[in-house]
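If you are new to this repository, start here. Below is one unmodified record pulled from the training split, so you can see the exact layout before writing a loader.
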Amino acid sequence: MTIYYGIKSANIAANVILKYFENGSGDLDKYTDRINTQIVHQLAYARAIAGLVYCFPHFGTVLLQRSDLLQSAVLNIVRGDLNFQQLASTLILGLPRILTQALRQKRLTNAQLTPGL
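And here is the target side for that same chain:
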């Protein structure tokens, strides 16, 4: 999970606890219900994305270094501007652009290293 989901979970807990004390009674199970509806469904997408990153760490690092689209997507997920479902969609739809950016950056790097070009 990202920082965003940790903060979101704490916010949900605080709200449920406040309502519990304001009413003098209540149902603390609402925390679990809200976590299940607002966070847990995202974990399947997070798990799939993490699986790819962990299986191909070098490839993922190279893509991240060379693609501004991938950099932006990762920053957006950390900030909470995208959820994991949206990130998965962005990665699938943006894969051609991500790969093109990575290959173009590789060619630029090779050309810069080759004297006389």
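Two things worth knowing about this chain: The mean pLDDT is 87. The chain has one domain: 3-113.
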